Every structure is written in C-alpha cells, then in structure tokens.
C-alpha cells in the first residue's frame, strides 16, 4: 500500500458493465499518459462498473485524490462516487474544466454548426440538464458555431436533430469513454439521419486530455498548499 504522504491520484470513470475489462484497460492507458505529465505522482485508474476495482485501486494508492472522468456533474459524481470514496478528496468532473470550451472550439473552426450528442435518460432529467449546461458553456465562448443538442435515450433524439443539421456540420459525442454508445448507438443514429459530417472522438481519445487532467490535479494541489489544507469539494461527504 502507498504511504498516505505520497502524491497519488485516481482517475475514475463509469465504465461499462458489458465490457468492464476493455474500459479498465483504456482508462489505465490514459492514467499512464497523465502520469508522464506529473513526475513524482502515482496515477491510478478504476471504473465503477468493474466490481471491486475502485476499492482495490484506492487501497493500492493509499489516500488518492479522486478525479472523476465524467463530462458533467450528475448522480454518479455527486452521489455514487462520493459514497464509495468516503473521506477521499474529489475534484470536479473532467468535463467541467474551464479550458475545455476553447480547446474544443479550436477543433471546430471550420465547421458551420455543431451537434452535441449526449446520453439522455427516459427516467431522469439530470442528464439533459447537465448537457444543457455544457452546451451553454460552449455557446457563451467566442467562436462557437450554431449548436444543437440531441440525445440517444430521450427527445430530441440524435437521429431527428442530425437530420436537420446543415452540410458541413460536426458531431461532438458528450462521452468520456469509447463505450458502446459511441461505437454503436451513435453511428447508427447518425446513419439513420443521413448525417455525413465530421464526428469527433470521445474525450479519452483527445490528445489534449492527459495534459488537461494533469493540470487539474496539479492546480488543486497547488491551491491546497497555498491554503494550508485540501478543501473538500462541495457536495461530498
């Protein structure tokens, strides 16, 4: 077990119950890249869907700082993860990073419009509300093209929205991992709509992601040192 005084962080994602090992491996590869940006840190990873992995990772790292690799705040980041993390310190979700809008919009400089494709839920408004907040962060940033939102599991559905997107549009999947939603459900919906525009990769595949995560971790540590303590994230126990 790592000593509590060591600098350690754990990147945590939802994962996939249908493919726990594949998502664990992908997240571990991301953690290794983040570690190369943070000499002296031990960076681990775990998905919540892989039984026991989160607890084993925490035990191996000692008292890691928790980085939720989610695109928005929601039930998992505000309830499920804090409950399992206990007294461990938790940062804001990756998708809340203030640097994200500018980075994403640089990738979209040649697109005439943008379709933000998200999960959605037929049972809860939380996913739609979080997506709306992310979309608003993009819209208020200079250079954002006209933006529309579509969901896989609630209206307005991706296929319906994509059908009316102008030529030259791009689609941004609001997903952290390359899950079945990204590799199967979203392409099927776009094909159904006849969408031929550019489809961006999920966050785990962005080349900037390891550096952004490393900067989040280091920024929190620097702020905590300046304050003399490490404050808990609002909403954690």
From TrEMBL:
Coiled coil: none annotated. Keywords: Lyase, Metal-binding. It comes from the Bacteria. GO terms for molecular function: lyase activity; metal ion binding. This is Cobalamin biosynthesis protein CbiX. The lineage of its organism: Bacteria, Pseudomonadati, Pseudomonadota, Alphaproteobacteria, Rhodobacterales.
């Amino acid at each position: 077990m790592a000593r509590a005084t060591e600098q350690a962080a754990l990147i945590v994602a939802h994962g996939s119950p249908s493919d726990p090992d594949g998502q664990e491996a992908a997240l571990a590869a991301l953690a290794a890249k983040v570690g190369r940006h943070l000499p002296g840190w031990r960076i681990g990873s775990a998905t919540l869907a892989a039984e026991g992995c989160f607890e084993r990772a925490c035990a191996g790292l000692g008292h890691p700082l928790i980085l939720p690799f989610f695109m928005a705040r929601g039930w998992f980041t505000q309830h499920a993860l804090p409950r399992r993390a206990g007294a461990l310190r938790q940062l804001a979700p990756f998708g809340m990073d203030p640097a994200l809008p500018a980075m994403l919009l640089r990738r979209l400089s040649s697109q005439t419009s943008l379709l933000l494709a998200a999960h959605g839920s037929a049972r809860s408004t939380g996913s739609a509300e979080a997506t709306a907040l992310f979309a608003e962060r993009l819209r208020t940033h200079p250079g954002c093209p006209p933006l529309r939102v579509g969901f896989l599991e609630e209206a307005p559905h991706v296929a319906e929205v994509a059908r009316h997107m102008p030529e030259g549009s791009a689609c941004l999947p609001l997903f952290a991992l390359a899950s079945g939603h990204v590799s199967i459900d979203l392409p099927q919906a776009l094909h159904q709509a006849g969408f031929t525009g550019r489809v961006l990769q999920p966050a785990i595949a962005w080349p900037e992601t390891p550096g952004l995560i490393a900067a989040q971790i280091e920024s929190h540590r620097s702020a905590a040192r300046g304050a003399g303590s490490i404050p808990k994230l609002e909403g954690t126990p």
